[in-house]
């Protein structure tokens, strides 16, 4: 955990060693120079497209109708916000992200606790556990759709019997289960790193004070783990809110709009309906929502740094 | 001995999470009739037909596209991120904290909000279905992660080592090459691995911006989505093959993986 401690100390180093304004200006630029290529690249590839999205969102533009490109102000936003499909997509995004994150963090916590002790073959078990996270998401989605959920020859019906069509009967559960399977290992790795950085002295002190194992876990370990739990939930949310592969592959957003999340809905609006203006407006709405969540997220990350510094 | 149940539970969980992967690998070695049987076939004569058919169906160009896009974008990211991380750690610029958070905030913006303008620009430039387009997009996607990671590795270089080099009269470039790079090279390797994994697995931009010429490995798999006339053994063989490089690399670099994925905040 030394990185965060030095994070706070770093800027204390003297800004300039040479005297004189000209030298210090040159020194400032020599400091900036290594940063500039990355900064310029990031601005061009990520910020400029977003500004263009803002502009496109004010156009009435269906790519299938030539010459339909004209300024309409905010009417796309009115369409987007009053659109039942988009509201459904928003709700699905929240349900999908929240349930996948919560379940995988809880499972990850349980597995991390199991793996925190020494036992024969611990390295092998950890390797087995992280494998789902390493499998290509597209491959994982296909594997679950066909080899596991398929009503005729899938593994679940093959073992349990019956002919339930899991994907159409429980579409959201089917998608979330696949995502949980892929993301639990990730949560486990972060929480395990937290558990293993906990000082043995604190645990020893709790035991000397007569705390039971469960009490120690509840009042010592869990509060200590909190930033790690937050970090795993946060990073999981950043990735899972953008879920596309699993929806695209397993359910195609269906049946109906049962599993259409925002990324998939915007994809449909862009590449199936060719409503560029509307798709752009929906994109902007998603960004605004993300900024709200991200502001909170960045505060959590800063908090994590601060906590480490004070330790 | 009261620990035994917990050990058994841990092993059971490990095997349960691994089982679908094992099933995928096994199914890849079955004949189609065995693969699609109900109840499932547990004992079978392994065959390489699935794998052979995958290569007959021209997986190779897709693998090469994936390799090129992932490799070159990883290189570009390292070239951009390493100096930037240096400027944000050892000799920090003013407002280094703002710059650091700017980079990570670009990671939080949903890709879907940038897709349309990117698609239009790429189309206008005649760069649809082009590997280099993917190189640039994957670089932008991985840059923030790489900067945060490289920064956390650079911060581990003891200040005394750098000062000693300066005292010995080493210039900036010399001390970077002779002192800094050898110390951070494991970190550089870990960063490269993470960038490679994310590029290799990326699907969203690939499906919208590539087709037959620059299609990457996940795009090859798209052909298996519909369930009519599905060849399960062939699908599993293909899924195993395209996942293999990342699974092997991840197994070898478990420790670095955690740190990389949590952007250096957790070690």
UniProtKB/TrEMBL annotation, chain A:
Keywords: Cell membrane, Membrane, Transmembrane, Transmembrane helix, Transport. GO terms for biological process: transmembrane transport. It is found in: Cell membrane. The keyword Cell wall biogenesis/degradation does not apply. GO terms for cellular component: plasma membrane. Gene3D superfamilies: MetI-like. SUPFAM superfamilies: MetI-like (SSF161098). Residues 1-26 are annotated as: Disordered. The chain crosses the membrane at residues 35-56, 89-115, 127-149, 169-195, 279-301. Its main location: membrane. It is a multi-pass membrane protein. Residues 90-297 form the ABC transmembrane type-1 domain. InterPro entries: MetI-like, MetI-like_sf. Belongs to the binding-protein-dependent transport system permease family. This is Sugar ABC transporter permease. It comes from Phytohabitans houttuyneae. The lineage of its organism: Bacteria, Bacillati, Actinomycetota, Actinomycetes, Micromonosporales.
From TrEMBL, chain B:
It comes from the Bacteria. Keywords: Cell membrane, Membrane, Transmembrane, Transmembrane helix, Transport. Residues 63-253 form the ABC transmembrane type-1 domain. It is a multi-pass membrane protein. The keyword Nucleotidyltransferase does not apply. It is found in: Cell membrane. CDD domains: TM_PBP2. The chain crosses the membrane at residues 59-88, 100-119, 131-150, 179-200, 231-253. One of its GO terms (cellular component) is plasma membrane. SUPFAM superfamilies: MetI-like. GO terms for biological process: transmembrane transport. Belongs to the binding-protein-dependent transport system permease family. This is Sugar ABC transporter permease. It comes from Phytohabitans houttuyneae.
